[in-house]
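Why Glucanase? Reviewers of the renewal asked for a concrete example.
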Amino acid sequence: MRRRVRVLVAALSALPLALAVAPSAHAADPTGMTSGFYVDPDSSAKKWVAANSGDGRAPAVNASLANTPMARWFGSWSGTIGTAAGAYVGAADYHDKLPVMVAYNIYHRDYCGGHSGGGASSPSAYASWIAQFAGGIAGRPAVVVLEPDSLADYGCMNQTQIRERQGMISGALAEFGRQAPNTWVYLDAGNPGWVSAATMAQRLHEAGLPRAHGFSLNISNYYTTAQNTAYGNAVNGELAARYGYTKPFVVDTSRNGNGSNGEWCNAAGRRIGTPTQLGGGAEMLLWIKAPGESDGNCGVGTGSTAGQFLPEVAYKMIYGY
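Here is what the prediction returned.
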């Protein structure tokens, strides 16, 4: 594996100069240990193109989606998680590329939303699962987004359940700190239309944000990069005022090219956004939600299940209609 030294000038300049950035929970910079982002060879778009090469939509899906670096999501469907995570980062490492991974298996996952319900069978089962996830990555470079929606999805939960969830997140961060020293972990902070910046700053801090590298925004949603940058800076303003530190943030731009129309579940008329890259108003712009994958049985994905690849939705998202 080759090693390169690079400086995240764009990322640092995206943060407000008045705020002091807290040091990362990990000293290593995985973006400087790799030569760009990893393209998942088994993404849903790649699989669909390979199986439907004669389809008239295949060239556009191949050119605009299948070869763009995006996150691989891991959950109960991944099988033995340590093996699955290790194989994925190992393949990326072999090519000197940086993998983006999503841990999505928390107990009572999507408890209030429901479309992606499931997850580990208990807090202890989750603790074991996430420990194996971190162990599979080990010392290889990676980016991990930890449990999308888990801190914004408090609306129907009582205080006991909230504290339980905070404990699971904090425990996960401890495992990454112990086992995966070259991984940047981002706690998910929802999106600009969900909870206030002040509320999110408190939730992030109480879940262990000081031990994470940063926080993530807009996963599986449609808000513009500018809206997310303003929200991320507002969260950092609250963190600085209350707790004396700030953190870098990343934005999911996979489906925000046309912005939000107020709907979150398979909204019509959306468009892919800026491909995965460093900087762009945040530390990184990432494709975390795979364009064309359903949010559940809703909107233009009526009749589908969460995660199912919908070629017509993907095709329309390329052109924004």
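The domain at 42-319 is CATH 3.20.20.40 (TIM Barrel). This is the kind of structural detail the renewal will allow us to pursue systematically.
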